[in-house]
Design goal:
Elements: H1 2-8, H2 12-20, H3 49-61, H4 63-73, H5 77-88, E1 97-98, H6 99-107, H7 112-121, H8 131-162, E2 170-171, H9 184-190, H10 205-218, H11 227-235, H12 241-257
Antiparallel strand pairs: 1-2
Helix pairs in contact: 1-2, 3-5, 3-12, 4-5, 4-10, 5-10, 5-12, 6-8, 9-10, 11-12
Length: 277
């Protein structure tokens, strides 16, 4: 991994220090599924009454930032609020995993010994594996490497730009971080300074909301789009029907609650009539 990063343009010294740090676990292999899917049961709790109330509270708390992101990118503020809730419970649980390590493990899926281990896993008692199945295993390994190696490179670039240790960035077990759980490359592609402070931090609600809205807009979200189109766009955020169903259901609840409605000016106070002396 260090040599490959060096060939990509990452400082060899920086990569060697990061992966040589005793806090970074050694690569111990990665067993992977060939067609992983998320079950609806994973998201059932998000649709409970208490969860829906928490999602409304999140939307109400960050309503100005969410409405600003909607004006900027034309993406329904309730959908962005729902994503913030589902991804991190409105920033309360952004993850404590070492982003670099999690991404590097996935990027090592195509390492020869790891591929051999996964081929053996899918072999029958005879130790043989059908050629078609073997190609599925190899294809999945190549896919994971192709998706996640660039994310490792981007993690080092974030560290360089922010002046932090590459292993300091913390997030989910899948290597995503911030309120809206972006992978590092999405941070570079869609990160937006939503609060105007001159920097982009996905741990700032206004920046996170604007960045998520920009992401969805890039895939074609526009005001008034049909339900099917909404599903197609959110699929790019998480390729899970269960996730999409949950986000849209929560968004509908948030929207109907009115917590994101623009604040209407109060009626002008009647002028006091002069009092006779």
């Amino acid at each position: 991994m260090v040599e490959k990063l060096a060939d990509t343009g990452i400082s060899r010294g920086s990569a060697a220090r990061a992966f040589g740090d005793p806090r970074v676990p050694e690569f111990d292999g990665l067993l992977f599924g060939l067609n992983p899917r998320e079950a609806h049961s994973m998201y059932r709790g998000f649709l409970s009454a208490s969860s829906a109330a928490s999602a409304e509270k999140c939307a109400a708390t960050h309503a100005p930032a969410l409405r600003s992101a909607e004006r900027l990118h034309g993406v329904d503020a309730s959908v962005v609020a729902a994503i913030m809730h589902v991804e991190t419970h409105c920033g309360r649980n952004t993850g404590k995993s070492m982003v670099l390590h999690r991404l590097a493990r996935l990027a090592m899926a195509n390492e020869p010994r790891n591929v051999a281990r996964n081929l053996a896993r899918y072999s029958g008692k005879s130790g043989k594996i059908e050629p078609e199945l073997a190609e599925q295993v190899r294809s999945r390994a190549r896919y994971l490497e192709g998706i996640f190696y660039p994310q490792v490179v981007a993690t080092f670039e974030i560290a360089r730009q922010e002046g932090i240790d590459p292993i300091a960035l913390r997030g989910s077990g899948a290597g995503a971080f911030g309120y809206v759980q972006f992978l590092p490359m999405n941070y570079f592609a869609f990160g937006t300074d939503g609060n105007g402070d001159g920097r982009i931090s996905l741990y700032q609600p206004a920046d996170a909301a604007a960045s998520a809205a920009r992401f969805l807009a890039s895939y074609g979200w526009k005001p008034g789009i049909k339900h099917a189109k909404k599903r197609q766009i959110i699929w790019h955020y998480n390729r899970s029907d269960a996730y999409i169903d949950t986000v849209l259901a929560l968004a509908s609840n948030i929207r109907s609650s009115g917590v994101l409605d623009p604040v209407r000016p109060e009626a002008t106070e009647a002028r006091a009539l002069p009092v006779d002396g």
